[in-house]
Design goal:
heterodimer, A: 505 residues, alpha/beta, Rossmann fold, 3 domains, six-stranded mixed β-sheet, 26% strand, globular, B: 358 residues, mainly alpha, two-stranded antiparallel sheet, 14 helices, 2 strands
Amino acid sequence: MSAKNVLSLLSLSKRFGTTLANDQVTLDLKRGEILALLGENGAGKTTLMNMLFGHYLPDEGSILISNAEDKMVPLTPGHPQAALAAGIGMVHQHFTLAENLTALENITLGSEPLWALGTNKVKVREKIEKIIKRSGLKVDLNVAVGRLSVGEKQRVEILKALYRDAKILVLDEPTAVLTPQEADLLFKNIQAMTLDGLSVIFISHKLREVLEFSHRIVVLRNGKKVGEILTCDADEKIIANMMVGEDAKVLKRTKLKVGQPLLSLSAITLKGNSLRNSLSDISLIVHEHEVLGVAGVSGNGQSVLAELISGLSFPNLGEIKIGSNRIDKPSPMAMISAGIGRIPEDRHRDGIVGSMTVAENAILESLNDPRVQRFGFLRQEAMTDYAEKLCEAYDVRGPGVRFPARLLSGGNIQKLILARVFEKLPSLILANQPTRGLDLGAASDVERRLLDARNRGAGVILISEDLDELLRLSDRIMVMYSGELKEVSSRNREEIGMLMAGKNK
Amino acid sequence: MIRIEARNSPPMLLKVGVPIFAAFVSLLLAAIPLAFAGANIGTAFVEMVRGVFGSVFAFSEMLTRATPLIFTGLAAAVAFRARLWNIGAEGQLYLGAMAAVAVGTGVLDVSGIILIPVIIIIGCFAGAFGMAVPVILKTRFGADEVVTTLLLNFIVLILVQMMLEGPLKDPMGLGWPQSSPILDQGMLPVLLDRMRVHSGLIIGLILALVLQLLITRSVWGFKLRAVGENIAASRHAGIRINRSLLSVAVCSGGLAGLAGVSEVIGLKGYLTADISPGFGYTGIVVAMLAGLSPVGVVVAALFIASVFVGADSMSRAMGVSSYLADLVVSMSLLCVLIGGFFAHYRVAWVSAPAKIKK
């Protein structure tokens, strides 16, 4: 590997109000190198990349980038155009593609005129096809992007960057939405591209892929660079300790004998408006003392399964039984009173009412509870006391229970929802992506509470895209693909991954 | 460079201060059209103030004007809190007024202690019905309530005209399109001798307090706010959305109907097709100016009524068009909307970044 630097970030700092999002971060990137940027949520990874790309102005520090003559020159800060021109390409976690345009049009969007008369379409296509051939990023260029799969969309994003002759590619959590196989393929492609001199920075939460595919790892914590290590010298434990700053606690799931069935879905078919929102003939049973993990790439029917168990959707066919009672008219209220605690996937949308206070959100599902309500009026003090106790017990940190819930951070919002749900001692917990977007500390706290509930006798349905999390927590694993649910007996990543991709061996 | 940042939670001072400041600014801005009209601005403002505070009569006229605005303002505030856009208070007002005339002109000849409550309740029902229909259309078929309530206003107005030419027409009315008069015992008592201000105002004030309590303290109000702020989370938490919206609709429509009742049995004594100069629409401005707070509605209604009455009196004294009042009311709404932006966001000037040295 050539040792020449292509990029240097020199003690960059960025302050938002009173928080120091980045504190004197210095970073070098060499030609052909794959650098993994790791850190908990809020550690400052995205801020750092946004400064590199010109979205944010650094308060201090500067960025040097190699020019055509291989000299390091300063990059004008705060100008995305300058960053683009200097050869920095960024692929955001949330794609920025025009769904109704073809892959080709998306790739050239912004760099070539769309409707110019007599465009050199042939030349453009040749250039893209050459890039595809070298990188292995296969995409059908003539198809509207809206019809591509998530993995293909991501390839279009990367091609877009490469088409602009990016020398440095920044990927923000590139594998969050991919199956394990797709993720591996992506990294193989990236490795191929680095042989051509491309340098890559990728942000990730997944230690496994970081260890497998990067050359060097940089860890951020609280806005500071706290560690830098060559990947060949690193292992999971070292990195986890760097990220958290202490020994990460390892969760222990003890074997338990399962009890009575709590929830059974038998032969449920639900026809939604699209395949993403449909269930076809699924059955599952969850028992006491059991975590049932539901694996799958998002958009294969998990959300509608969660809606079904939350009481928000009605099956066309099939039967829902809670304990031995048939639920004929599912509704959120019916599910809550049947003892199902629900942790929604989109906690901002379905979990809290952001503009209402933390205390009000704490009782959102307990409006009929005589502890907080009398004669149709809320008992303000009892409500505040209840919320304060809850926040203390579940370590919800924030400005206080009388302030709007939207002021809480993502992790604390999730803790508030957990508090609300667990406080009612539900017999069954539906946890849909409960740790998504949470930092390591908050995530392991959520996982611990779910296991605690299982140990106390509750059943848990855990829907997650994080296979490692599923393997850690689940007693049984089912895989969801295209509205169908299949039990897997094996705990092999490869095998589960194949099922997630719809390949049935 | 200008940067706009969201404030964490707007301080109380801003929440209350912004509408008051906006009201003042709108009055100051009124100087511009006044100047164009060639009036002496100083005298004009003095005339306006005198038109409201100059005498007991002037003040009582302002209170009379504020009464229907309190009802329609409350109607809008309650609905808007639940993000239910009731633009139809004008029509619901007429429905209430029509119901009042239907029962109050002789069909039911009983003593006032019974008659007045009956008229009020039936008027409320009529208004509530006028809002329940669009909301049922909304929850069943997804019909946008902005469109349906707005268009229903015109339908109701034409219905009123038809009724005033037909069944409700006063046989003694010399052919005028107006209803028979309300029975004497069916009229609300006036508050001051030889003044027009009537006890509808007291009903409005009490309702504002009750609503304030209901919205901030009751489970019903909690659900209404939750549905308004985040319908998805409310549904997820087991709140019955349709039921909640329907109850809000009934409440809002009933209040608007009450505005019509109060005008008929408090002020006019009979129904004509021009009983409301747009009280239903002005109620929306009142509610916005009040930040959708029921107690705030009272203050805002008093302000808007003052502007109307003051501008009326000024235009008479100075020969300036009284449309100026509409202008001030509209500007106050704009000012509040702009002010609301500043209450929720902080605008900061950011100095240009230091150039990097070579």
